Amino acid sequence: MVKTADSRLDSASLVCPEVFYWPGYMWVLNDEMSETVMSDQLTYMAAQGARTVTPLPEPREFRPTTMPTLMSPDYLSTDYMDRFRHILAEVRRLGMNFWLYDEGGWPSGAVCGKLVKENPELGAKTLNAEQVRVARGDTISIPPDCLAAFLCQGSESPRRLAPGATLTINSDNSRILVVTVTSSDWLPDLLSPKSTEEFIRLTHDAYRRAIGNEFGKTVTVLFTDEPWVSLNPWTDDFADGFLRSKGYDLMDKLPSIFEGDTAEDKQARIDYWDWWSRRYADAFFGRIRDWCRENDILFGGHLGGENSTACVYEGGGIGHPLRDLRSMDVPGVDTIWRQLWPGTTTHHWPKYASSAAHFNGTPWAMSESFAVYGAGLTHEQMKWISDYQSVRGINLFTIIGYPLSNKDWFVGGQRPTFCPDNPLFKFSIDYNTYLARLNYLLSLGEPVITTALYYPMRDVWVGGPDCHSAASSHDALARALLENQCDFDLVDDDVLEEALTLPGGKLQVGKMVYDTVCVGSQSWMTAASRERLSEFAAGGGKLLWVDNAEGSHPTGALAADTGSLHSFAKPLVTVTPECDKLRVCCRKLSNGRLYFITNEDSDCINCSVEFCESLPPVVIDAESGKCYRSSEAKNSSDGWSMPVNLPFAGSLLVLFTSDDLPLVPEPAEAGRTLLTLNDGWTCRRARTYTIGDHEIEVRESEDAGVPVSLGDWRSILGEGFSGDGEYELAFDCPSGVAQDATHLDLGSVKYACEVEVNGQALGRRSWQPFSFPVAGVLMPGANTIKVTVTNTLANQYCTSSALDRWTPTQLGPYHPKALQFEPDSLPSGLYGPVVIRAGAALIP
User: Residue 240: which H helix or E strand, with range?
Assistant: First the structure.
């Protein structure tokens, strides 16, 4: 049975969420699918909390000239399906969750070229325009195989010419625009329902026959990956379908698709994009969704290149992102190539997926994250990136990736890899557990969002200055809302035209109800949308018309600019002092309200947050699964206030509830410094990871420690050292310090660590604070501290010559990109300062 979400927090589920919520890896099948190897790797994944596996086949025919692989058996063959049945048996045995990837590589839809090979007439079709310069007196023959041709003379409207026609040019300043259609011999025409039917027949139905008994059980989601439509697509019945829909002949307006700045040109461009993107959403996404529902499985996935407001021009494949994503049960985004990164990211595109899910009233939106971030990616950075998406409504994650083989040239492929070849892999359980609990919590109940932001899709379709102006205003408005802790959904003309105005100044859009709608600079909103928004404003709704021309306001709209937005938009919380790097989302549960607060700054944030809530607050620690009361929470007639102190990548979960949840004592905060331990340390190589001739080699070391100053260890362990460095310190502890000590604070660590004091393991940390409890562990007199620090493989990739033996074709297109990122992670080691602290005094 297809899964549903809960409406209330369950304490047992918080401690150990059901398997559906756990993140996992896209498992890149790039070599012989040995049952023994696959069983071992699934066991490694499960042990690290990567409990949702998405096998990603990369057959030999996927990218034979740019990403050669050795996958066998052949994709979708009988032997291949036998291996999949083995995988499912192991997934069941290990209590894991399974997402079914729908292609051999990507983009989805081609069946690795088989679909078009068997059905040449279904190749993807693209409009092309060629300019032919002519002079007065020239006699021109129009190519008989073109779609259409046009005589363009100065400012006159283009005159359509019949294919095969001959004409003599009778004026200067003339040109011929010849429009042709080309077809792909690999990619299918996804505007044709016949292509989707063939895709389903060749792929989905084959899996159904092989493993369909697990649909809705172990297999929960069908994942589609970057289905692709060319820029300026065409399909066989385009002209007829367009005429029926729009009421005029597109064939007469083909030049407007490529050029022209008149209102008539722009309207034709909008109509062209509107028609094909609607056909795409229905013919591809809608039909696959219907198949999934018939087979008791959720339909999810993501588009390609959707990380900007003008994304429809970034290589094609989208058309209308919200329209496509609303056709999914689990709409998603792709987070790759450092599109999200601390200190550089400002865009809100995860909201494409979450807004679609909210409109549909479905619980989940997903992200595929971390492809080509480079081998230097740390769990602290991963937490920042996933928190960035989670606070914008993402609550399921698949992580790319875990390679079936990391031998020979595969070692230079997509990085990072999440497997035992990665020094940080042993720390993955902490990140995966944190994310599982967060996914569970942020799937509960309903989103508390009362503000909608208009997505100016039609202005984007126009292109040129209209697109730039609308996108810039939209992005600034989205940023201002978030910086003022005002959460929002994206709405477009599709949904506004069908919206319902409710009493009390409310607007129902799908399953959501808003009391505020913000509209940035735009010129091409539909008349039906403007009418609906006017009705909303007339009924008392707050319609903010931001950065628009003075005379363009609908009746009842409030004129505003981005800088004054905070005067109109209602935030979820009040922050003192104001902090534009604090992000907040909220969920309404049947047993309370849950707030998730994140730090998106590169530094720590210290502020006070006021919640307009009457029920008492409980702090939820997603790392441990424990709940406690904050002694610093204060109640007043306006609600509750709490101090918020978040380091880089820090976050906070607060539930306001009257439920009697199992609570633990509030964790002691680290307070004053009792003793500083920066001198007398030794360091040695404990485990070394080396890029060898055929694989990444891991060796334990018996090196003796050498004296070291805290800081970058490269001067001691070497520029290319990747692995575990073991620090040790013997020191005398005064009796008063041993008695009062509560925390060992390591300061800065690059990038994860495990700690022992006097032979007793204190735990491990992968992100700040690198602080460990030591109450009752330190002794008066002689003590020993051992800190094992783990860095990344970036040092090896940036210094090793082992990859020189492989050609650029073998290493693939992502190797150079990763090398651009990896130098950022070369500094490694225990930086400190290392201090022993007493507990902070609790506020009475």
Answer: helix 238-246
Burial of 479 (0-12, 13-18, 19+ CB in 10 A): middle
Q: Are 303 and 224 in contact (CB under 8 A)?
A: no
Phi, psi of 771 (to 5 degrees): -125, 140
- Supply the pLDDT for residue 844: 39
Token pair belonging to 824 = 């950022």
Report the alpha-carbon distance of residue 637 to residue 13 in Å, rounded: 33
Indicate whether 467 and 499 sit together in one domain: yes
Measured CA to CA, the distance from residue 99 to residue 82 in angstroms comes to: 17
Are 647 and 769 a contacting pair, CB within 8 Å?
Answer: yes
Same domain, 336 and 196: yes
Same domain, 213 and 306: yes
Q: Is the peptide bond before 107 cis (omega within 30 degrees of 0)?
A: yes
Examine residue 708 and state whether it is found in any structural domain, yes or no: yes
- Please name the amino acid found at residue 715: S
Cα atoms in the Cβ-side hemisphere of radius 13 Å centred on 493: 19
Q: Tokens 């008063």 identify what position?
A: 736
Contact 366, 300 (CB under 8 A): yes
Residues 6+ apart with CB under 8 A from 699: 687, 688, 690
Helix (H) or strand (E) holding 125: strand 123-134
Instruction: Confirm whether pTM is higher than 0.90.
Output: yes
Side-chain half-sphere CA neighbours of 441 within 13 A: 33
Residue 280, CA atoms < 13 Å, CB-side half-sphere: 31
Q: Which parts of 712-790 are beta strand (E)?
A: 723-733, 741-745, 748-750, 752-757, 760-765, 771-773, 781-790
The tokens for 79 are: 């032997």
Q: Which amino acid type is present at position 51? A: R
429 & 458 share domain: no
Closest to 559 measured CA to CA, from 550, 571, 569 = 550
| Residue found by looking up tokens 């003599």 in the block | 168
pLDDT at 843: 43
Residues 203-216 pLDDT 10s:
999 999 999 999 99
Q: Where are the beta strands (DSSP E) in 379-450?
A: 396-403, 446-447
Report pLDDT for 340: 94
In whole angstroms, give the CA distance from residue 285 to residue 322: 12
Q: What are phi and psi of 214, to 5 degrees?
A: -100, -5
* DSSP string across 433-463: HHHHHHHHHTTSSEE---EEEE--HHHHHH-
**Structural domain ending residue among the three candidates 521, 551, 567:** 567
Contact 489, 517 (CB under 8 A): no
Q: Give the pLDDT score at 551.
A: 61
What's the confidence (pLDDT) of residue 311? 86
The span from the CA of 109 to the CA of 773, in Å, is 53
Place of tokens 């970036």: 794
Q: How many CB atoms lie within 10 A of CB 630?
A: 18
CATH code of the domain covering residue 782? 2.60.120.260
Number of domain units in the chain: 5
Q: Tokens 């304490």 belong to which residue?
A: 11
**Distance, CA of 211 to CA of 542 (rounded, Å):** 51
195 DSSP assignment = H
For 117, residues 6+ apart whose C-beta sits below 8 A from its C-beta are 185
Q: Note whether 104 and 137 are same-domain residues.
A: no
Query: Do the Cβ atoms of 366 and 302 come closer than 8 Å?
Result: yes
Which stretches of the chain score pLDDT less than 50? Answer: 842-844
Phi/psi for 450 (5° steps) reads -115, 0
pLDDT value at residue 316: 65
pLDDT reported for residue 842: 46
CB 839 within 8 A of CB 671: yes
pLDDT at 529: 96
Mark whether 380 and 432 lie in a shared domain: yes
3-state SS, 610-635, equals EECCCCCEEEEECCCCEEECCCCCEE
Structural domain including 104 reads: 11-109+190-230+285-444
